Batch of 2 targets.
Target 1
Amino acid sequence: MLAAFRFGDAEAMGALYDRHARAVRVYLLGMLGDREEAEDVFQHVMVGFIKQAASLRDNTAVRAYLLASARNRVSNLLRNKNRRDNSLHDYEALSRHRDGQELDPASSAEAEEIRRQLNAALAQLPGEEREVVLLHTHAGLSFGEVAEALGVPKSTAASRYQVGLAKLRELLPHET
Amino acid sequence: MKHDIEKLLQSFDIPDAPPENRRAFMAVVRAQTKVNAQVNANRTSARRAGRRLFVAASAAAVVILGIMLWPRAHEPRREGTTQKTSPTEPAVAAVGTIESEVLTIQRDGQTLELKKGDALRLEDELHPARRSDVRLRDGSFVRIDGGSELILRRPAAGERARLRLSAGRIFLRVSEASGTFAVLAGARVSVVGTAFAVAEHEGVTEVNVIDGKVKLESGGKEIELERGQSGAAAEGAAPETTSTDPNTALLWARDTVRFDDRPIGEVLDWISQNSSYRFNAPPAMRQLHVSVAISDEPLMDIIDAVVLTHGLTRRVEGNDIMISK
């Protein structure tokens, strides 16, 4: 795809966008918890990628590259704002219930409460656990793919995931 | 009751990007495709021209060498002759020269447009319309952002140079020489030999250091900033260190550089000289070749592009970056 782009095939980049944009968006929303902020960073990451694409080797792992770029920008953003991973205010990565339109009003209110609790719990997870949990559950990446994208061993990705889930269980009210 | 937390998470959505995002992305891609085509065409013609130029230059060099050597071989040997000094040495009154194509200054109440190589004098007020470069007499390099206001002041005792930054931002690579190099903004910034930036905006002076040590003085207090640190001082107030990453703050001052199929070591050395990062990479990995364009992207993105190309990994510890397999 990168070679095709270098030889003038713009649609090759469109195909890469379709393949990887979701993972980048999930990552950014998961880490920042703010749709507008995530959208801004997403644009920068993608435009940065376009600028670099012609120079990258054909066998470059594009998703890993994009997620590494997103991570760098998130880390700069958080550092410059003097924010810490566990102090995200108004965190809202998860939006509506997937079956939202089919729920009756009572269930809908309950779903909204669970969504609020889940977001609050996710905001309290350390960034390295939150990123693995969301990339696996919402971007559909296998542990091998998460490991490659984040530059960690597969076993580390899997254990961060398990630790993250255990913490979420503890953080959520048990009667929900 | 314990939750099936995975199912619960998956029952809520993280929506996809709206379709207009993809359209905007493709518009940028198409624009870049045209740029790439132009670059490729230029490179091809440059290669052809380079080959022709090489042949012509080789022939010319043989002729010139012959002309130069002929009289020497036939004239009697002269003892005790000395090399002439360079005619390009700056005049005594000059405190620096302009390295950019053009730079607007105020001198003795007049607005002048100076050109590359023109001399600067004490009390010249520099008002560049766009990013401009100046080389001072002591060898120090000053990059001034467009819209900034900088005056070359007379140095005080013990100082070798003194700049007054009234507004905007400058990046300095100060040569190692005796005497302090001082920058006056709302606060006083002084160094001996280092690379750093100073910005002055609405009474707040900000300093970002990528190499060496810099002293920031304000309100009767001073702090020392080292490689990778930033600090700020409001006018008259004590200075404080800040969490700003100097490598991000200095994006505006970065040169655009392109490495085409060059050893990773060469790229890392360039980054090292232009940032606070230091690299530790085994010699074999430094020999691997990459192609990368460095412009106004965050340096860590470029480092990742370099590293991921060969499936390497990087670990960051402060300013040190370890590259490994």
Target 2
Amino acid sequence: MRLNGHRVLDYSCRAMSRVPEINGASIVLTGSFNPAIFQPQWFVRQNILPEAEAEAAKNLVVIAQQGAQVCDFETERFRIQVTTDRFMVMSKAASNPVPIRDVVLGTFFVLEHTPATALGLNRHMHFHLDSVEEWHQLGDRLAPKDGWKGVLKGGRPGMRSLLIQSSLDSSENPEAPQLYVKVEPSTQVKQGAYFETNESYSFAKDTPLKTIMDIVRGRWEEAYNHAAEIAAYILDWARK
Amino acid sequence: MPPKSLLTSSTGQENESTTDYRPEYAKTIVRFNQPIALDALKQGMSDPDQKRLAPQAQSAALATPTVMLDPRRPKLTKGNGYTLQIRQLWEGTVTRLHSDGFEARLSDKTNPNNPDEQALFDFEYVEVSDDDQRLLRPGSVFYWTVGTERTPAGQVKNVSNVEFRYYPAWTQGAIASASTRAASLKEWLEQSERIKPAEI
């Protein structure tokens, strides 16, 4: 095919049935980090970020004092926040979230001996619902109010937040990776629903970083798409 | 101790909350200046010594604000108002360069069940940033996003964006390490070949 405006329009018609109004993702690692090094120009020197993007980084906060360290900045596409025990890359609402994987893989390809103890593959989506009725129905189906109406006399009880936990595999192993799904009324989209997924992996202290990066490499896209499937399924189920 | 979900989840929504719950991640991590420092300095000093304490030192110590930096988890918000609704996402691999564009193999990330496709990207229609142009060569990987961008003023426009994948170059140390490993594997393979089946 030849890419031109007409073709783009053609492809946009393949749109997914449920497209979030606001879409984002993040990858979080816990462990032991040296925040002072994670400055925009460091990412440029390692060929992890384009130079122009790093030069235009905003809200840079770098504190490098003994026992109290942080590096936090935003670029056009990402927000990167590192403390001594937490590394996070998050996409911004106006960008494609998938490349945050490349930032993580690139960073820890360079810092290959970083000790890490947990990994989170996260996605967050704000959906607009077609009607107020559908919006209420989602909350009512996920959290029926019958039990609450007997004790909360003040008015109509409503669901503010729901967190569901499930093992990622069918084993009974308590150390198995866990999936957390949070559903809330959206604070960003009128008549909207917010979905947040968190695939959480815990590791023994001596787990090689390469093992963790293999999970990021192999699982990221699946986790990202799975989040959308969960949200689409729940939204459709609630409407029935 | 927060549940594991709080350890590796990242954002949550922006909520106006009056709860006194203060999550683990919102701990105070640094405090500049101790306002008591000047008082402590004065303690044990005679009055004349206190007067001799350089006025600029006093004012500097007093002027330094007490700052508590609280790296709360960032929130996924509309921010400056721009949002992108991704309707289609491909991952592409450049297969050939032309003077007016490049060819690529596309893998559909929106619907991974779709087969790969070949596409010709024409520079007349596709903008590659200055930084990304140096990555444009056979084998390089990029993302092609087709979607709808909403501006702060509420305007909606279709966008098509190509962004190349960045990955760190191999360091000399990594190359040396890989070379050593390759050499030992080669040696092992050659030794294996020399062993006749009857000897196994």
